[in-house]
User: What shape does this take?
Amino acid sequence: MKEHYQILIVGGGNAGISVASQLLIKNKKLSIGIIEPSDNHYYQPAWTLVAAGVFDIKKTVRKEADLIPRGAELIKDSVTTFNPENNSLSCKSGQKLTYDYLIVAPGIQLDWDKIKGLKENLGKNGVCSNYLFDQAPYTWQILKNLKAGKVIFTNPNTPIKCGGAPQKIMYLAADHLRKKGLLKDSEVHFYSGGGIIFGVKKYADVLNKVIARYGIKTHFGHNLIEIDGDKKIAYFETKDSSGETVLVNQEYDMIHVTPPQSAPDFIKNSPLAVKDNPLGWVDLNMNTLQHNVFPNIFGCGDAGSTPNAKTGAAIRKQAPVLVQNLLRLIEGKTLDEKYTGYGSCPLITGYGKLVLAEFNYANEPMETFPFDQGKERYSMWLLKTKVLPWLYWNKILKGTA
Assistant: This one.
């Protein structure tokens, strides 16, 4: 294995592989290494569908090594420390690698430990989460056997990957209960550490109607801090009318938890992170995706500091901007490509219903199709369940979409 690469990529997820593929399409002679410890690669957006009983979990996983583009080298390792002043980094194996240019795309870290009792109860006592490959099927197991009861869905007070995911499974669960005739005798609760249902008013207006349709009770400014699995009680921190922090509890029969999230610790504790930011995002220019301190470093995907929605759709728009700007930097030219903050969230609102939200940094709609996307549509459900999974494996990762 080589010790030096012209371009070194940290992370072999959507962002890392997409960028590598696009770079090699433009210049096959580039020397590219991709550092990734995982054996498997997952199509995570389908896990909500798995949890709703309409998608096969086996179709969401492939071997990582099979997805590395021809011309790039997979380095099966994980990064421990960065030394950007010397264009080098160290890996868990003890290997030290150097580079001319670095692309940081490690994905986001799920901070399960920040909720007391969560890890111990995950996968039992009615506690589920679609944020893990081996847990999404348990959500469906609970849901299909659920009788009328109290059903809770949580959303943390940190940015998360796929910001609509905590809601999507909630709407599917409510629709499932409705179809079984159990919704009228159930309570569906949405506890969110945030302050609103969605950041773009056009789509928020639609979602509020969906919430009213299912009779969902919303609780904003409530952050999950503990689960007592034996007693089936969830504890939330919130503020009272005087601004004091108080603890409230909620009994449940089923609770779907979205964990707090942050940049991986090896990023958070490195010179690449935004200074004094507790979540540790990679310090990037929001338009060029170049690092704000080290000009030969770029970033892409969920670990970046860019204030966009952390979605695969954002990566699809970031990747070509990064590629073009990096190639221009190599050629000694100015960085002229700009990322506008595009993000997309296919908001499933029930079985066969979906609102395709697309927007930019300013939370202004940036819609693709020649019709009003602020409506629930079966056609967009087909896009989510049929078209996008195929597009991911066959086009996006290969750098052609």
About this structure: The chain has two domains: 4-108+263-340, 114-258. Residues 341 and 361 are 4 Å apart (CA to CA). The chain has a mean pLDDT of 97.
